[in-house]
Write a structure and sequence with these properties.
Blueprint: H1 3-9, H2 12-27, E1 36-39, H3 45-50, E2 57-61, H4 64-73, E3 79-83, E4 96-102, H5 111-124, E5 125-136, H6 140-145, H7 156-166, E6 169-175, E7 179-185
């Protein structure tokens, strides 16, 4: 991410937004279980909050410097930081109880790679596992923040279908003027699917 965006995502104001608005909105009524993966934590302000809700958290970051900084900062906690590409993760199938993606999916360089990342998350989640996330809404201001940076906005109107194609069931996408939250699950064998949200 560009320097201005990195500074914003490392700021006290962003930490407060994550703590008071973003993660409470993303995690409402969600049981994350015991072994959670977060993709694209960046500076780790979402990680700081998320780790208080779970017993074990694995944070996967593709940027080597950000991964190293976060690993040093959370040493001795319930967080393991891994420098890896989330579109091709070194984890066994069905490992995690939940996965989180918080304001990072638009940093993945193409819709195809975004879909590959979603499919990887479906692979590493257990039956019944849940994906939760938040991302931004495309706008001129959103684009300005990402000037000189990777920015591939996700359309919330089509995202439920993309989640289904990646292997998830019961996608729920809720948008407002600032962004959108999403949840989806891995089907438990023999379970019936719930009715999906119209988005």
């Amino acid at each position: 991410m560009n320097e201005v965006h990195l500074q914003r995502c490392s700021s006290a104001e962003w930490a407060q937004a994550v703590e008071e608005f973003i993660l409470p909105w993303a995690l409402k009524d969600i049981d994350l279980g015991d072994d959670v993966i977060e993709v694209g934590p960046g500076p780790g302000l979402t990680t700081d909050v998320l780790r208080r809700h779970v017993s074990r958290l694995t944070a996967v970051e593709t940027d080597a410097a950000l991964a190293a900084d976060l690993a040093a900062r959370v040493v001795g906690t319930n967080v393991e930081v891994m420098h890896a590409d989330a579109t091709d993760m070194p984890f066994e199938d069905d490992r995690f109880s939940a996965a989180g993606s918080f304001t990072m999916l638009h940093h993945v360089p193409s819709p195809q790679l975004q879909d590959q990342l979603l499919a990887e998350l479906a692979r590493v989640l257990r039956p019944g596992g849940v994906l939760v996330g938040v991302d931004g809404i495309d706008s001129p201001e959103f684009r300005d923040l990402h000037e000189g940076d990777v920015c591939v906005p996700v359309d919330p109107a089509t995202f439920a279908d993309r989640l289904r194609r990646a292997g998830f069931v019961d996608p729920d996408v809720e948008a407002n003027e600032f962004g959108f939250r999403f949840t989806a699950r891995i089907l438990v064998p023999g379970a019936r699917r719930a009715v999906s949200h119209p988005l």
